[in-house]
Structures are given as C-alpha cells and as structure tokens.
User: Fold these one by one.
Assistant:
Number 1:
Amino acid sequence: MVLETIHSPKDLKSLTKEGLQQVVDEARQALLEKTSRHGGHNGPNFGIVEMTVALHYVFNSPIDKFIFDVSHQSYVHKMLTGRVQAFLDPAHYDDVSGYTNPKESEHDLFTVGHTSTSLALASGVAKARDLKKESYNVIAIIGDGSLSGGQAYEGLNQIATTGSNTLIIVNDNDQSIAANPRGGIYTALRNLRESKGQAADNLFKALGYDYHYLDEGNDLNRLIQLFQEVKDADHPVLLHIHTVKGKGYKPAEENREAFHAGGPFNLETGEYLSDGNGGASYNSVTADLIMDKMKQDPTVVAINAGTPMLLFNQEERKKVGDQFVDVGIAEQEAATMTTGLAKNGAKPIWAVFSTFMQRTYDQLSHDMALNNQAGTILVYGASVSSMNDESHLGFFDIPFLAHIPNFVYLAPTNKEEHLAMLDWAIEQEEHPVAIRIPVGPLKETGIADKTDYSILNKNQVIQKGSQVALFGLGNFYGLAEDVAKELAAKHNIKATIVNPKFITGLDKELLDSLAADHQLVVTLEDGVLEGGYGQMIAGYLGDSPLKVQNYGIEKAYHDRYDRKQILVDNGISVNNLVKNILKDL
Amino acid sequence: MVLETIHSPKDLKSLTKEGLQQVVDEARQALLEKTSRHGGHNGPNFGIVEMTVALHYVFNSPIDKFIFDVSHQSYVHKMLTGRVQAFLDPAHYDDVSGYTNPKESEHDLFTVGHTSTSLALASGVAKARDLKKESYNVIAIIGDGSLSGGQAYEGLNQIATTGSNTLIIVNDNDQSIAANPRGGIYTALRNLRESKGQAADNLFKALGYDYHYLDEGNDLNRLIQLFQEVKDADHPVLLHIHTVKGKGYKPAEENREAFHAGGPFNLETGEYLSDGNGGASYNSVTADLIMDKMKQDPTVVAINAGTPMLLFNQEERKKVGDQFVDVGIAEQEAATMTTGLAKNGAKPIWAVFSTFMQRTYDQLSHDMALNNQAGTILVYGASVSSMNDESHLGFFDIPFLAHIPNFVYLAPTNKEEHLAMLDWAIEQEEHPVAIRIPVGPLKETGIADKTDYSILNKNQVIQKGSQVALFGLGNFYGLAEDVAKELAAKHNIKATIVNPKFITGLDKELLDSLAADHQLVVTLEDGVLEGGYGQMIAGYLGDSPLKVQNYGIEKAYHDRYDRKQILVDNGISVNNLVKNILKDL
C-alpha cells in the first residue's frame, strides 16, 4: 500500500503519476471503508480525492496555506498529512475530528465547521503575508453550496480588492440540481458548467478574477497541470472545478442528498444501517403538525437554510411544493425573509440548528424583533446532548436569543406541550416566537395541553411544596422531577417543581410568592450557564431572602465530550444537586 | 408651493411633468434647509430626489411595496407620504425619525437602520404575496454601498430563485471612487457604469436578472419612463441607476464622505458648524495610539467595515496606507479577516460600532474565539448615552459578546487605563480581546496604568470599605464613586468601590472575600440588564449570605429616548441607589 507510506505531503512529491493514482485509489477505498463502518461526511470526500492529492503534490503545505471551507471534506487531506492510520485502522478512527483542527496538525490552519468562512479567513491570511512581505500561496477550497452564503461573497470582494496572491478553488459538485433553476448563484454556476466556463456573463470575472474552468475535476493529471499553471500567481485566481459528489461509489453518486453525510452504511447496497427507526420523535411530530397546517392554510410556509432534511424529506418537500423554501446556506436570508413573510401576512416557520442560528443575531434583532413580526423559529439541537464537535455546539442559544427584546422563546418539556406551543406560535400575530425543540426521546402525557400561551411568562407549578423550588427548564425538566423524588424519598422534603415554559421572561408573581415558604430556588438549564436563564432569576431574587443555585454548563468550546460526563463535571447529577440543596436548607 | 399640497402619493398622479419637476426642486430645497439646520443623512437624500418622485408617480404605494435599504435615504419618500411638515416647519423637524417607520405611515413597511437587508425583506414580502395569490409590485431600493454586504447577495440569490415580480433598484452613487479599484463589487459596478451597462461580464445577468441601466439617474423623465416600462413585470428586474450623491448642492457633491451624514452646516460655505472641537477624546487617543503602533510595527493593521471615519480621517488613512483595510459594509468579512490576520502573525484591530458588531456573532464565536486568535476589537457606542434610534442601539453588547468562550472583554474607565488595555490587547498573543471604548468626555488620571492585564478577571478595589460593595463597570464607574460619596457624606457608610475592568469573567477571590464584612453587592452597568454582567455576579453569589442588586437598562427597543430620563426610569440615579442600598443594610 502506497498510502501508508505517505507521512507528510513531501512523500508525495517523489511519486510517479501512477503512484499518485494509486494513492487516489487507496484513499478512496479507505474512505469507503471508514465511512461505511463509522459514518461521516461521505459524499463530499469521495468527490475531492483527486483534487486533494493534486493539491498536496503541487503546493507545499504548510508553507503554502490550505483553508478548507466547512472542512468536512478534509479527510483525504488528513490522510496525506500524517494521519492516515485514522482512516485505515478502525482502532484509530476516532483519533481525528471530522474537521480541520490545528491541534492535530500544522497542515490544518483553522478549526472550522460552519460554511462560507474560508474566503474571509484566506483574505486575512494573505493580507498578513503581504504585510510581512512574505511569499507563498494561500489557497481556499470552497464548495458550490458554501458559495450561497453571503460571507463567501464578502470574501470574494475582499480578496479581489486586496489583489495579491490568493487561489480560490470552487469545488463545484453540482448542488444546483436540487435547486430551482430560475436564477441565483446555482444557476450562474450551472451556466458556467454547461458552457465549460464560457458563459457570456461570468460572475467571477465581473468581480475581477482571473478565472479558469476545469470540467474534469476528478482527472488527476489535468488537476496537477492546472495547479502548476496558477501556482505562485501575483494576483487572485479563481479555479472553477467540476467534480462528482460521491465519485467512485455508485449509491453516493446517485443519491447525493443522503450521501452528504450519515452514519454507517452497507457497502454493497448503499443503505444506511440505522436509516429511520420508524418511531415518533420530536422532529417527526413537529413535521406532522406543520404538514397539517400547510394543507389547511396556503400561507403557512417553511423556510430552511441548506438543511432541508431537518423538517421534511424529499418526498414531503415535493408534496408541499411552494410552501417550502430552501434559501441555500444563507441563514441571514432565512431569518430576514421570515420577517418579510410575516409582515405581508404569511405564517413563516424557519427550522434551524441552534449552532447555525448563531449566524443571524442581527437579523433576529434588527429585522424580526425590532419589527416585532410573528414568525416562528424552530431551534434544533439546543442541548448538551446534541452535536458535540466544538465547532457545532448548540447550547449557547439562551444568552444569544433570550435577551433580544420582543422575542418569546419557549422550552417545551413533552410532546403535547410542544405541539400546543407550536400551534400557538404559528397562529398568533403578536410576537416573534422561537421554540427550543426538545432533544431526547419523545415524552407523551396523553393529555392535550390547553395552556393559553398568549399569557406570557406564566410558569407552571407542577407540584406545590416548600423549602426548595426546582425550576427545570425544557430538557432538564425531568431532572427537576428526579431531584424532587429523591428529596421526598430520602429527606422527607416536598419540593416545589416548576416548568418555566418561557425562557425570555420571568414569572415575577410566582418568584415573589416563593419567599413565604421557601429558602432556596434551584434553576436547571440544558445550556451554558453564563448569561442564561438561571442568572436572570438570580438577578431578580438578588436582594430577596431566597438563596439561588444555578446549574448549567460552564462556557467553553467543549470538544467531542462524553455527554453524560460533561453534566457530572458541571455538578449536574441528582446526587450532587440533592447534596447542595440540603446545604442551603 | 406644490410640495405642501402633496398629502399622499395620489396627489402626485395628477401633476404635469412641470409640476413634478417643481416638487423635485422644492423637495431638494426643503432637504437643504432641514439638514443644514438640523443635521441628518444629507448626501444620500440629495441624490435620490428625482427617483423618489418618479417612484411615487409611477407606482401605487402602499399597494405596491417600497422597501428602502438602511432607509436613511427615505426623507423625500416621507415628504410625499403625508409627512411634509416635518421637512418644512422647524417646529416639526423631530416629528419623524431618520428612517422608515411603520408607526409613522402605512407607506413605511419596516423599521430599518442597518444595511443590506432590503432584498431579504423584499424576498419575503414577495413570497407572501405569491402564496396569497395577490398581484402588485415589490420594490427594493438599495445603494451601491449596501451591495457590499453579504446579506444583499443572499437576497439577490433568493429573489432570482423565486422568480416572480420583484424590482430591485441599485441606486449607484459611485461609492467605488473611495474604494480600491482592483476588483470586487465596486469594480464590477464601475465597469457597468463606464460601459453604460454593456460590460462583458455582468454580475446581475449572471444571477439571472433582467438588467437595465440608466446613466441619467437624476433625470425625472427618464426615470418615469424606465419605471413605467418595468412596472408589473412577471419576473425579477434589476435597475442599475446612476445617481449623483449630494446632487444639487455643490459642497455635498464634492465632499461625499463628509456629506453622507452630519450635523447642521453652513448652507453657503458647506462647512459643518461643530466640525471638530479640537479637544482630545477617547476616540482621538485611541487613534493616536494605533497610529504610533503602526509606525513601529508594519504588521499592525486596522480593519473597518464601511465606517472608516470611526478610527482615522481621510488624511490619516492615506498616511497608514496598506495598514488600513476597509472591507466595505461587510462586518462578517471584517471579523473573520481579523481572525485570519491574527493566525498568520499580524496584529489586527477591528474598529466597529456596537450596533453593527451584532452582525457577527458567529464570526466572533466560530471563527475568532473557537480558534482563539489574538485580534483586538474596538467596540464603539456601547452605551445608553450613544446613538438612541431604536435601530441603532449599542447597549446589547454584553449579553451578546461576554458569554462567548475565550473572549476577553474589557471595560476601561479612564484614558490611562484604556490605553494600557489597548496596548496589551494589541501586543498579547493569547486571547481575542474586545475593548468597550468609553462613551463621554475623556477622563484623565495623569498616572500611567501599570496593570498586567494578562492576569485575567482581576478586579481593582479602589476603596476598601464595608457593608456595601459597588461594582461600577466601565462608563458607570463614576456613578459608583458618586454613590459612595453620598453614602459617606450623608450616612457615614464607607462603601467598597470596585472597578471590575473585565466583563467576561468574575474575580471570584474578591467576591468570596466580601461576605466577611459586607451585606450587599451592587452592580452598575451601562447596558441591558438581562444576560449582562451583574446577573453573572448575582448567579455566583446566589447562595452566599450577600444580597445583590443589579442595575442596568431593561431590554426593549427604546426609541429616540432622553438619555438622562432612561437612566432615571431604570432606577439609575444616586438618590435611588442610595435609598435601595440603605434598605438592604
């Protein structure tokens, strides 16, 4: 095996073309085996094997600087930069992250997991080089999907304006097939592909780029030739390279949405091993309710920014037609379009992962909240128990969203409550509303929730007790119940249990009433502690006789953590809570 | 006067071309008189008089929907939609805001003050129209400056993809003159202007637009003709219209940077009445220090996103040359470019208004903080006592920024401290650092600050007292001193006075020590209360014997408020503080 002998990019330089092709073949085989067993971003990596080998053959990393957009397509890059065992040996599969990571290698410049940032990063790296009067290539590799993000366009502008060496590689694997063909960047790229780069109006040339098109983006020799031609240019160059997503694995080439990323799959059939367990989940009941609404009301419309599977599968999207809008990986557009839709009388619902919602603070504040428009935002993965890559953490949402005026942010604790909140959010016309979709198995009470959610900030007292009041927010409501059980069983204390429901405001009447027969308020939230829900309560009760204990996660970029351990590390266990509560009583 | 007889756009319809021209002339004269006496966005409005009259003559607002980007160019629109007295009668000058405002008129769809949002708003308004199967024109008016923001590009993509009636008017008043001519959107626009819309590569056509160019954008008749041609189109249309910024007022045409916005000016000479008081300010000492650094170190580089005057004037920018980068109105690019610069060994300093920093949460978190890059961010106007339009509030910065891991956010209280923090921030290589530039007159101690700011979260105890500890953060440090004086003079209480300096973390050692001889901790912050600094302290001290009182501003979009009154309304006065403190002792 040649691949195993590549310990750094230097080892590629001495290979013949045949040797390089063998590296390509072996790398693709390793990808297939690892992703089929272990899961990961399969399709994007299959398509970029030749390009990655060619890049490392022609350029000299780490002197030349590679910046991979999103960086979920950096697996082959990792293989060629000293980390091949993480792709060959199942015992080492978890040695590397799914993204570039400077802690792993000097060949990885940045920790990246969100899209459309590579050009801005490259513009800074290149500018620093120029200020230092150094000389080398700065190379950003960006997919066509990532080009739909506004930040990519800002980067295109800045690199062109700076005017010095920067190589932008648009890895175009034809996402436009999924998109509407009437206009926009995907149409522009398609026109360029179909004309082999000769289309009359060229966006990149318009911005001043030295533009080159390569149709055979999985042809190693042509890639090498092209890179050699543009290496060391004294100006910005844009290479538009057409690759095949999923290249070399037929199921991935044919089903590109499924083979963007996923868990383990059957190599022979191309079927995911755990594809759909059939059971109801918070995601499925959410989708069902929205689908029903859409049938009844043509102004109900779902907005999505590049993660359509979050709400509907392909078939469902087809069914709802114009009532589903995928704006591309353009969260700012999604948030502000939601505002415009609501203003003009539609009922928009934007489904978004918490970690990507972070791209829209000003759109949520200056557009949606300042104009107080009644759109609904579904916030997925806002939990310590969701994605656990440091680049994809979803638990900063409360300090992020809860202090924006006018917003109503809701934390349901079971299916019936969630659906009642969702129904209310869609139909009301008074407030921008966000719902923190619960993470974990579906909990059903079997009793419809008749709460009037237009009465804002009204907490629900589930059990009236004394001494200690437990505020269990959203996903941590069950923990409050467990603590109460333990206090009752072992210490003869009947705790008050509160389901706050509302994150964006306090039930002051309830809080004021607690001092009469309580000594302690405990807040539990499935998110970062600083700037969160509990601290609002601590501030409100600061000069009352009540003591307050806040529980949540300490702010930090926790990486690939054990989801149970991080709770324990932050003092969040029934035992520790009971112990600390007893101290204050 | 014809203008006074225009109570709604309908009144324009019956006018002859001569009558319309008279409206144009009278509107321009009214603009000149109001802005010269009262201040405001002068240049952008002078340039768009003819266009606004033509738009309201041809289209039918409010059935047809106008959306003005940033909306600081909507003065003439306001004159034609029932609000002319606010431009003719000095007694009514303050009746209208400087931006579109639905509370003023049904002709104003949105409250807008930040750039590049109009296309996303229009995409939503048009989509809602389509879902409701209604028929009218949706028209977005966007300046060339605003087109540099990535959100505008996302909107261009979405409108083109939707494919139904939307009219985008690019009001091109040639900001590219200030920009670097080597590439990017300003170059693309310039090429189109110089070729009268015929340039070989047309960005807008590439995105699928039906593109029209008009060079005589201040010619009323040509504007009317063009609008009539494209009215009621069944597809997206982009009109690229070349106007003259400051049109009709020579000083404004000649000095476009100064005549973008400003206070009252002398109509005859074109000189601003209060242009530069010559005294030192926090802004001037900041600029001086950075200028010195730049001379000593070629890797010190200032980044700016479309507000260059914040740091350096034109002459100073010329002097520092390549060490100043204006990325356009593209805050995301600024934040992430700062990250790239720091990673590759430069010393970047990004100067930004707090209200515009809101556009970069994910860039500050996922790019700068996750990668822990040592750039410096200067946050201007983060105070209740800064801009007071509801669209431009700068006091949400602490919940926004302070809970992002790795960031060090500093709150200086005087000149020497500020300069010491700034010097440290630029030279250190450990953390992303933001500095909350003080708002208000420069306070000097005359004693150089020798604090080692690498010891994070170390608060400074200015006076050691007992009973009550006053934490006066940044701009509110002086208030803490005033309260302490009153407590000493009237109540014989020697309060402890603390200058926290660090917003992003607590001095736990100090806080733990207070319980021995204090009953109360009071926090004072010049910003929103919820999710702020004080609540972190309240959370930390929640189960200590100490009581805590937090003072700040209640979250809301306060509009054109009286800066002293809002403090009083939020309980922030020496008298009220003393009264509340005495209650808890």
Number 2:
Amino acid sequence: MRSHYCGDVNQSHVGQEVTLVGWVNRSRDLGGVVFLDLRDREGLVQVVYDPDLPEVFDVASSLRSEFCVQVKGVVRARPDSQVNAHMRTGEIEVLGKALTIINASEPLPLSMDNFQNNSEEQRLKYRYLDLRRPEMTQRLIFRSKVTSAVRRYLDSNGFLDIETPILTKATPEGARDYLVPSRTYKGHFFALPQSPQLFKQLLMMSGFDRYYQIVKCFRDEDLRADRQPEFTQIDIETSFMTSEQVMAKTEEMVRGLFQELLDVDLGEFPKMTWDEAMRRFGSDKPDLRNPLELVDVADLVKDVEFAVFKGPANDAEGRVAAIKVPNGATLSRKQIDEYTKYVGIYGAKGLAWMKVNDIDAGLDGIQSPVLKFLNEEIVSSILARVEAKTGEIILFGADKANVVAEAMGALRLKLGQDFELLQGEWKPLWVVDFPMFEKADGRWYAVHHPFTAPSTVTAEELAANPGTAVSDAYDMVLNGVELGGGSVRIHKQDMQATVFKILGISDEEAQEKFGFLLEALRYGTPPHAGLAFGLDRMVMLMTGATSIRDVMAFPKTTTAACPLTDAPSLANPQQLVELGIDVTKAEKAAEKSE
Amino acid sequence: MRSHYCGDVNQSHVGQEVTLVGWVNRSRDLGGVVFLDLRDREGLVQVVYDPDLPEVFDVASSLRSEFCVQVKGVVRARPDSQVNAHMRTGEIEVLGKALTIINASEPLPLSMDNFQNNSEEQRLKYRYLDLRRPEMTQRLIFRSKVTSAVRRYLDSNGFLDIETPILTKATPEGARDYLVPSRTYKGHFFALPQSPQLFKQLLMMSGFDRYYQIVKCFRDEDLRADRQPEFTQIDIETSFMTSEQVMAKTEEMVRGLFQELLDVDLGEFPKMTWDEAMRRFGSDKPDLRNPLELVDVADLVKDVEFAVFKGPANDAEGRVAAIKVPNGATLSRKQIDEYTKYVGIYGAKGLAWMKVNDIDAGLDGIQSPVLKFLNEEIVSSILARVEAKTGEIILFGADKANVVAEAMGALRLKLGQDFELLQGEWKPLWVVDFPMFEKADGRWYAVHHPFTAPSTVTAEELAANPGTAVSDAYDMVLNGVELGGGSVRIHKQDMQATVFKILGISDEEAQEKFGFLLEALRYGTPPHAGLAFGLDRMVMLMTGATSIRDVMAFPKTTTAACPLTDAPSLANPQQLVELGIDVTKAEKAAEKSE
C-alpha cells in the first residue's frame, strides 16, 4: 500500500511517483491550494493538492485531523523560500495526484498539538492517540533500538537468552509481591517475580555460563513518579567471571549503546568506593556533573563550644561536613531559610552557614550566625580546608553520618541545579566496595541482597565482623541515576548459611524460602556474578524523558490502574469460587473511578 | 578463569596450553591413569592425569561426578586407535598439568546417566541438575538461537519490539484468565494476558506500523501434555499489509530459521483452503507427510439400503468418507476392532471396512461386513473413486460432517504412524479461508477470535449470512502442528459491532469488555493484520523434543505446580488482609504435596 515512509522521502526522490499512507497531521486550504502534512512513524511530509484535479481536490478539502489516508503523488523540490529546515523532509513536497480516505476520524477527545492541556489520566485513557505524538512514537522506537542493540551485543558475546517463570514463588526482596491465586491448589498463591535472581543463579548451577533476559519484574509498592508496578530489567548472569570482568563487559555494552544510538563516547568509567562516594558526595549514586563536594571538618571542630558541631564531631557515628558554593554569598536570609527547610526533609535539624564576603579580611570578612562559637584559628582552618574564596558561602551539616550524607547529598544536588553548576552531559561511574550489611532497628539488613558475596573474608570472619565486611558488588551510575547494579554471588553453602544467619533468617525460614537454593549449592555450584539494568530508567535517561511513563507503551497510573482498559476490574464471582477465594473488602466503584 | 570452552578444543590447539573450567562428567582411574571427561555447555573434553605429577594426580583421583573444577593442561592429539568419532573433541585430549577443585558435589539426588530413571517430578525438583544433561542444555541453547534469529529478522525488517502489559484486564478468549488481586482497588483484579491481541491492535492505531514481541502469555487451563500455564508467543502485527504480504514475510522468517539453524530448505509453503484441508485430511492442520487422504463417497451411497451410509449421505450436514490403506488387507479382525474403538474416542459410532483381496475378481475379491447392503455397481464405483488396488483396506466414516472429519482425521494420523507411511521430513503449508463462525449449542462462535475480519463481505452481508462468511485468516502448519495463526483484523467500527452482535455479545457487554477498542476504531484506525507463533511448540518441533517441558528452563507440572520452588505456596495472612481477600477453601498441605 506504500512505496515509502513519509519521513523517508527526500531530495533523491524528486521526480518520482510515490505512494504514502499515514495520518493527517494538519490540513490547510490556503488560497485554493490544500497543504496536507501527512504523518507516519518515520516523520512528516507535506503534500500539496492543486484545484486542477477537482475530484481529488474535493477529497483533500474534506480531510480532517487524524484521518487515515493513502496519497499518490510526485515528489518535487520546494522553492528555496519554502524550504523548512526544521523538517527532515523540508526540502521537498509531494504534488498529490490521488487521495483515498482509508478510515475517517471523529474529532479527537484530546489535543494533539498542545498535549500539555491533556491530563495524565486523559493521556492514558486515550493512550493509542497520545502515542501518535511524534515525541512519544520516537521514544518507543528508541527503546526498541536499545533492546535490539543490547541483544546484539549480548548474543555476540555468547550470552544465552533464557526465559524464567512469571508464575513463581514469593521472594523476600523488600517490596511486596503481586500474588496470583492457584486454582489447582486452592488457598495457595503464586507470586510474580521481583526479579529472576534465584532462577538466574540456578541457571549458572546448570552450567549455562552466560545468561541474559530482558524481562518484566513486578513490585506491588505505593508508586512514586519513577516507579511502575511492572518494569523491565536487562538481567545478566555469568559464571567463572570476576566482578572486574563483569564490569568490563557491561561497561562495554553501555558504552556501545551510547556510541551507536546517541553518538556519545562515554569513555572509560571511573571506579569509586562506596566510602568515597558517601564522603565526597553524600550519595551512593553521585551525579559527577555536579562539581560541589562535601568536605569533612569534624576534626577541626572537635573542641568548639558549639554543641551542634561538637556533639557529632566527637561521636564515632557522627559527621560534620561542609559544602562551599561559588557565588553563594549572594544568597538572602530567606533563600538560606528555604535550604534549611529543604535539608529538614532529609532529617537535618538545621543548616549552619558562613558567607565569605572577603577572604582577605580575616574574621571581619566572614558573616555567619555561628561565628560567635568559633575562634579565628578554627575559622581559618575551615576556610583553608574548603579552599574558600571571596563570594562563596559554606553550608554545614552536623549529625549522625547517615543523616549528614542524606541531607547534604540532597542539598548538593539542589545547589547544583539552582546555581546551574552541572558540567558535561554524561558522567558515568562505577560505585564499588559497598558494605555487606547495614544496621537498622538493632538488626542487620543486606545492602544489596542476601545472595551477594563478601569481597575477601571467609564465612567465619564474616560472622565475627558483619559490620565491616565489604561486598563484591557494583553499581553503574550515570548522572546521579543508578542504571544497574550487581554482584558476585555466594557459591558456597556455608557462606550462604552464614549470611542468612546474620540477617536473622532462622534455619526454618531459610529452608522454607530458599531450601532449593541451599540444596543446589551442594552440587558443584560454579562461582558466578551478574548484574541487572533498569531498562525503563536507562531509556528515560537516554531520551531525556522526565517520567518513566513516557518510555512505556501502556503504563499504569500512580495508583496502579489502567484508565485505557479500566483494569483492575471486578472478577466473575464464579471464577472466585473456582479459586477458593472471596473478597472481604471491596472499594466502591465510585471510589475506584475517582 | 578459562581460555576455551571444553567443547571447543580441537586439533588446531594441539601443543597449546589451555585452561578449562567445568563439571566432572565422568572420572575413571584406569591402570594408574585418571581419565576425566570435563563438561561445559559447549561439550565434553577428555583430560588425562598421569601419576608423574603426584600431587595433581592425587587431586584427580579424588574427583567425583559433578565436581566443579579448573583444569590446566596441554592439548595433544589422541593416538588413532583412541580417536572417538562420536565426540566433537574426540580427536584430541588434554594432558592435565594442574587441577583445582572449585566446588565439590555431594552424590546427586538423581541419575545423570540414565535420566529415564528419574521421575518427571524429580527432574523438575532438581531442575538445575536435569538441565546439566547435554541434551537439555543444547535444547535451551537452540531456543536462544531461535529467538535471536527471529529478532534479527524482524529488526532488520523494520519491526519494533514494544512491550505490552502483563497486569491487564480480563479478555474472553476462551480459556480462563489468571487473576491478580489489586491492593489499591480492593475487590478488583488484574488478569494476566492470554495474548497481547488488543494491545498490539492499539499499537497499530498509534501508527507503529510494524510491531513484534516475544512475550509470555497465560492460560489457567487444565493442562495437557503440550500445554503450560505460561507459554511464549512470537507476536507480530503490521499495518497496511494484506494477508498475502503477512504470510510472505512470516514464511520468509520461518524458512530462514530452518535454513540457518537446521540447514533445511522448507521451500515455498503451499496454501490450502480450510475446506480442502477438512475434505482431504479431516483436519485444519494436516500433516502432509502422511499420504493417506479422505475420499468423499456420499454421492455413491445415497440410495443404498444401509442406513449407516444412507442417512449421512442424504443429510446436508452429513458426510460419508473413505480412507484406503495400502497393505491394509492384512489387518486382523482384532486390529480392525482396535481402530473402531479408536474412532469411537472421536465420536464415531462405528467403522465400516472393505478389504480388497483381489481387485480383478469382482465382488468375490472383496471382503466386507457391509457388502450385503451394497450392489456390485456401487462397490465398483467406490473402488474406482478411491482407486483401490489389491491388498488394500478401505475404511469408512459416516456421520455428521464434523464427526467424520474429526474421527477419520485422527484415524488417518494413526494409520500413517502404524503403517509407517510418513514421507519427507518437513511439510509446511498455509491453511486459509477459514469460516468466520461455527455454530454450537444454537449460537455462533468465532473460529479465530472476534477481531478477525471477513474476507470480502460488508458488515450488512456478514450479518445476513454469518454461516457462509470466510475470514481473512491464516494458519501456518508444519508436520501436522499449528506453528502459528493470524488474520487481518477488523478496522471499522460497524464491522466490529456486527461481529459482536453475531456472537451474541450485547451492547452493554461489548462496551464493558471492549469499549476502548470500539472507541479507538473511531479515530482513523489503519487496516492491520498480524500473526502469533507458539515459540515453545516451534522449538519442540525443531529440536525433536517430545514434551513442551523439555524446551522450557523451569516448566510447571501437569497440575501447574513447581516442585523446585514449591510454588504455589501459602500466603502471608497479613498480605491477604491488605489485598482484601480471604481464602474460602484451601487444599490441605498433604493434598498439595501429592
């Protein structure tokens, strides 16, 4: 039905007859000539209908937006004055010779030109129309190119695409599982996987050596802007490879993606330990485009009379850190108050500050509400430590180390944006040497997941000092976004049992939940390591989309509903009987449609 | 950790030092020399340990099956007398210089050498070990090659890989949906998709033009040998393409697959109408390797005194068909009785037969219990119609046409096997021109699905004569197996509404279930058509596996359970409260583990 895609017609076709199909993007009758912008997935082309073919012209005059039509015509160069440099096909136009309306369109229920006027709900309800917008179409085409390139790389590197089950057993990876009642075993449930973690480890135990899968994962969480109930992972696992080798392979893959699809050379990714990332950036996924850094000053303020500094400075778990902001001395008291509120969100009780009005004027050049607690020597040492210059402001966080990291890390990002400090377009890095465990509520939690191997210690050493153990884990971070993360896995049963024990998982619970994994570790499990990338987030970053919903064809709302199909919906009562379940508490229909 | 895969070591490496990792497939101490068969996913290689390196030899002597080890050694040619032609690496062996036990193995809970001794349950419980068997490993590697080749073909033909939701709305496609309770909207349920049918149609409405996805689909059915609760489709949809074009593209894809992966040229696929397939083979997925055909003889027996023939022969919905079997006259009465029982399974009330002992001897040469009802002229005309020869048997089915097709179609397949008649290895074809609807229980059912377009008729014509309408649908059949099926879809609202009406779907029900589709058809929907292949079945056929479970990494049992992870399992009561559901009837644990 077509000879070319609309967006592909160009100078080389001038003089040729083409047949195009697509949608009426816009149609205008300008002084007896109809100008039709015809759109398909590859782009737009201008078609011109003159009145000298009256029957065709009449059809052209009757076109309305989003009619699906077939056009036959001859390509011609536009006069220089009418060349449209903003349009891929802007050097040519098609002189229409024939026109068939394939399918008419009623007036649309949402605006195609000013889609900002459409509510998110409207956009999702009429998703098939929203996806016609070239911006949305191009994002999904880009996503398809990403998965295609990823697969090509992994296929050519000996990775096998192996499917793992969607109907599986609940795994305790933090978030809530979606459950699926079993009809055969009434009262029992499958869970949708939060990741194929255990299955990919089992595949390594089977000897598949290199596995990948681009796979849906599921979390029944209260949604945030960048979360969806179902999301997609590029899931990778390897045997007999070290963490260095896994990082090298996957870095090469991502570098290739950026080169091929964005013509960007990411260069070699630097590696940074988790310790350094937390110390310098207050984050385990630092945005390195932001030049601001946290500078530790606890040692300088150990003996001051100011309790806010002195307390944390003398607490083994405390921290006092400064961020200096070029040109920050211009901040008003009101602006500083706003930043103080901002760090409050992250648990900081306040935000001490110090303006450097004149670095050469001693204490007279410094303006700060905390100046009265500090002597000249201490102030000088702080200024020296942060290498302060005239016109800067220094902001201080003092609290438990985790609060300082979180609050000052967030403040750093906000200052970077507010002062437009970001440098460079793409700044990737690896964060490595994570702690194995973190303590909360008096018990240990796995920082990655309970199958992550420690870096060097034996099972006995780990049991003795869980708090200091470093894991053989790695996160790939780009522009402050965690693109993916992974680790070397435990491949010895005694180590796995030790980790479960540290995490407070009883033998009985371990047996019930992971019995098959512990059993599998008995039969010659190879050393293995892997990584999973968040595909949605990766595509979001690469396309510059601001919402994860803009890189998925049919996302859910933030309340996990689909306005298009009206899912979830009421079930057939007979089917519930067959499943052996009953609804104990139902939202009213009115509540749902709100 | 390795320089080569075990299975890849060959003559070209003779003299080189190699480092291999893998599993001990077998280890024998033969007269003071240890022969170790080391296995990885690519194959086996023989490693020899001499006692002249005592420390290494001692380790080698201690090896047991399925230990995971690292071997260093030098490749050498085997003496001619020891070359193993059955082994890819059979011309060489590795003289071991070092040996590290990476991970030991306890004695295995199932037999690796005689896996037939393992029950299906055992194989699934220790799936990670069952998958180590080279036969299983190779099947999954082959499956990965299939998906990779499919993707390469579709990518290079402009198809976009677009993901559709797994948490979606119930669709009435015959089978039962798996339900997923919603926590946000208590009492409401998502359904797991039986196919992405409606979403892929919506993507065409969005203008994506060419879509594909290799995607999990779900059916909560009572399982048969070749069914699984979750299975995988190669799902394809196109806009602006005719059925002929879709068939040409997908045929090219499958032909390419067979060429690339099996070195088989399938040639051009013949097309056969549904009518012809039912008439000649009693099946809409005929196995063309089988030379037997059904021959209609109703017109010849219209006036006989034999009610079994006469009734169906004079019934507009009846049929009388014969199958003649070369060398069939040797069948004993007992064997014929077995076949009579066999067709009884398919609803046939009996099986008339006629042995041709001597074709030249007139009625004297014919042996048949029904001979007494037929005169010489009729017998002659039947013999002439089926072109009978001495030594053949002719078997008759007479009943309603659908019963004859089913029973005689099944009998044809059984006779083909029993008499070893199959010719040729691969016999593909397209079956086309299906009826739009079939009647059962006094109402119409869609033969494909309710979104399938009729071939030529208008909505009004279809409404007037639903029984005679032919759909623009097509099934790809190979060796009697339906590899895939598809159709041109309805792209006009009046046609879709007419089909719903014929199917007895009320306006209200249509609105509730497909309101979004009917709405979407208003806004310039393009003509579109697609197809879906059953990936599991395709891989099964290509690898010669006899069970769908043998081409999936982690299948479920026939009662839809996973003995490996013990899914489904009991849910956390608190989670059920959060979901607003309650279990009304639970299997006892003992029942489940049965």
